[in-house]
Amino acid sequence: MQSIKGARSSFRNINPYANRGMTLEADLEASNTFYLVNDIAIVHKKPTPITISKVDYPSRLQAVIREGYFRTPSTTDYNGIYKGKYIDFDAKETKSKTSFPLNNVHPHQIKHLESIARHGGIGFLIVRFTLLNKTFFISIEKLLEFMKNSNRKSIPLEYFEKEGYQIADKYNPRVDYIEVINKLYFGGKK
User: Fold this and answer.
1) Residue 186 near residue 87, CB atoms below 8 Å
2) What is residue 20's three-state secondary structure?
3) In whole angstroms, what is the distance from residue 108 CA to residue 68 CA?
4) Rounded CA gap, 97 and 88, in Å?
5) What's the N-to-C CA distance of the chain in angstroms?
6) Cα–Cα distance measured from residue 141 to residue 6, given in angstroms and rounded to the nearest whole number
7) DSSP helix/strand/coil, 126
8) In degrees, to the nearest 5, what angle opens at C-alpha 185 toward C-alphas 180 and 187?
């Protein structure tokens, strides 16, 4: 059994950056759970459409999938609803310290997010620069503006800093993208 003195010293040694190694997807899942439990928004990760073509059945409880393929290209990772608005977004990570490669976003994903915005929904990307521990929200409108006005194959970090919104690390929710949506689409109102 640990003494009170020993317990106090171990509390002091808790690393505030302990979750930095978590993936963006894990952070978003935790954030979406927080939003759901606190009745703030309903956002879920979409399943990837896969068709299973070969399964071995040694027994009913031990079925093993041996072969499968993607049915159709997946659109984006997440969708849901917030304050009566449909939201749809994709999460991306890069190890680059200077830019985000545009080939990380597939043309069908851009087209999908563009359609969402055209129909009154909120479409965006959440991009994490993992080595810098910086996470950004960039609307589909700003992404399209960059692509229209630039021939670059990557978006510089400076563009995210100027035209996107950095999402500060928090305890709960970890990636508070709803805070950015409030600023952009609801006049800062919670």
Assistant:
1) no
2) helix
3) 22
4) 26
5) 46
6) 53
7) strand
8) 85
Two tokens, residue 8: 């106090």
CB 50 within 8 A of CB 87: no
Q: Which residues of 24-55 are buried (b: 16+ CB within 10 A; e: fewer)?
A: beebbbbbbebbeeeebbebeeeeeeeeeeee
Tokens of 162: 């100027």
Structure tokens at 129: 């620069």
Select from 3.90.230.10, 3.40.50.920, 3.40.1350.10, 3.10.450.50 the CATH code of 18-48+74-185.
Answer: 3.40.1350.10
> Rounded distance, CA 14 to CA 79, Å?
35
**The whole model's pTM is what?**
0.78
* Residue 154 CB contacts under 8 Å (≥ 6 apart), including other chains: 96, 99, 100, 101, 102
- Structure-block tokens of residue 143: 């992404």
What tens digit of pLDDT does each residue of 101-160 get? 999 999 999 999 999 999 999 999 999 999 999 999 999 999 999 999 999 999 999 999
Amino acid at 3: S
